[in-house]
Amino acid sequence: xxxxxxxxxxxxxxxxxxxxxxxxxxxxxxxxxxxxxxxxxxxxxxxxxxxxxxxxxxxxxxxxxxxxxxxxxxxxxxxxxxxxxxxxxxxxxxxxxxxxxxxxxxxxxxxxxxxxxxxxxxxxxxxxxxxxxxxxxxxxxxxxxxxxxxxxxxxxxxxxxxxxxxxxxxxxxxxxxxxxxxxxxxxxxxxxxxxxxxxxxxxxxxxxxxxxxxxxxxxxxxxxxxxxxxxxxxxxxxxxxxxxxxxxxxxxxxxxxxxxxxxxxxxxxxxxxxxxxxxxxxxxxxxxxxxxxxxxxxxxxxxxxxxxxxxxxxxxxxxxxxxxxxxxxxxxxxxxxxxxxxxxxxxxxx
Amino acid sequence: xxxxxxxxxxxxxxxxxxxxxxxxxxxxxxxxxxxxxxxxxxxxxxxxxxxxxxxxxxxxxxxxxxxxxxxxxxxxxxxxxxxxxxxxxxxxxxxxxxxxxxxxxxxxxxxxxxxxxxxxxxxxxxxxxxxxxxxxxxxxxxxxxxxxxxxxxxxxxxxxxxxxxxxxxxxxxxxxxxxxxxxxxxxxxxxxxxxxxxxxxxxxxxxxxxxxxxxxxxxxxxxxxxxxxxxxxxxxxxxxxxxxxxxxxxxxxxxxxxxxxxxxxxxxxxxxxxxxxxxxxxxxxxxxxxxxxxxxxxxxxxxxxxxxxxxxxxxxxxxxxxxxxxxxxxxxxxxxxxxxxxxxxxxxxx
Lengths: 350, 350
Hints:
The structure is a homodimer. By secondary structure, chain A is an alpha/beta fold. Helix content of chain A is 45%, strand content 15%. In chain A, strand 9 (286-291), helix 12 (294-298) and strand 10 form a beta-alpha-beta unit. The N and C termini of chain A lie far apart (103 Å). The interface between A and B is large, with 54 and 53 residues.
């Protein structure tokens, strides 16, 4: 009986036996050896050195890192790109809400299949599933129907920030009331006496583009103003397309006296076109932007713009995701934030 | 013998047995059941529905997500904040290099102990260790000596981007040659005929602040120009401090004719101070910035600035980290990128 017991002790608990040997050789307790192995701070320097020396002498293989008490839970944040202050605000909002929920954030770029930057490729999905995330926040990216089904089958909750088209039933989303934002911006220009008001909006067919055109048209109609078709232009939300569209508008006769440009980056491009044409903002042209990114305050003159609270939207998206992960009751899977008009120095009365 | 074999089969491979039952009941192969369970796309819709129905009938508990073939490896990116285009460039560079190395990126903010935003608190370190990362990239944050030892004991390689002070021996870092950048910027202004050139740099005592002052002084000395002490001011790299320091410089008599402002954000604040004083850039004052963030191109007039290739630096930091993780040979654990002067429209000859 005795030999079998010995064999059992060294077999089942060989690590503990070795720790005990180390402790004995160093003249310390087993917990002290454990602390040294786990890199804890509450061990005296002399004791630590003695234990380290004994560990070396015994060629003890230490674990690579301290044991994980509770496995960390990750959520995925996937965006169409990470450069610039738009994704920065989203990342910042998601990270801070995740921190409060004790979740870790894995951030990645949705690398597109072919030329369509807004649709996720299959590789992205496999990587996300591999990561073992508890859920996904998507910023400005679209799921194909196949991918949505795949996420659902993998039981991975998903929240979209600013869906580009109406999300399919069952997919949660957080957006801003862009219709109301566009209405307010247009009404502001009308109140200042502008009548010939141009619009530079996003790519045709996107949800936000439709909402912005509708808001602009509604405000014009409410004031009894007609919209000349040549005054509505489509950009792609970036600076260079804004510059290009404003250059086009400046070629019209008569020129508009005000332009509502539906992203701050496009408005900054518009400033360039106006400067090139030696026109002063707001003296020669009133400009209203959309987003209220930090750069809207930095350009000169500071840009009047429609604020959408991106960081708060990102926080809310993460909080909604947490409720979906925990299978808590959710009042609504489609949250919409109010926009607000921030009047700075790029607009004035005709 | 026969009963023991049966018992072994149902004991050791109960899942497989159940899969076989499902397959038999649905009239499909076991791999097909497997595909349905793992949410794969290559199963016909009718077959899938039949298998799903049998799974429901048998109350088969499916795994929450497909089995992980290879456990994902994470690296940590920790910064002092995530808002704005500086952290965005770093995140973008780290993510793209990590993608190429098949690593996932966990991003987090170093929440500071007390009021010192630049030192990491203990909680950060515990969360990072919990995450089980393979390594850490730190952006604009400092480690205490205790934290550095803790990381080393946990065998967690670490690379600092833009260390604020000289990193301790053994800690890898990626920086830019800020001395040369400051020299080039100052020399550019001297070449344009400026003599009374002011400097707005960072907080006293930081490594980059020292390098910038030294570069400025060297260029001034090489041209035989004295530096009046009142022309050197310290900001905190943000917009409002830039505005404040330029306002101070405008109170001097005689005023400087050019200001080298050591961050684009401070330079944007400087533009505001100059506009408030009804001074035109570059007619009344030449301005050079530092960083070359996207906004340097957007301000009007576009800012002449010292470019440090942040995104490339972030990529290099991740690539260096990968070598440290893999215990590959590393030529140098301190990489320094060249800066370059980008001349735009904010400087002109006196």
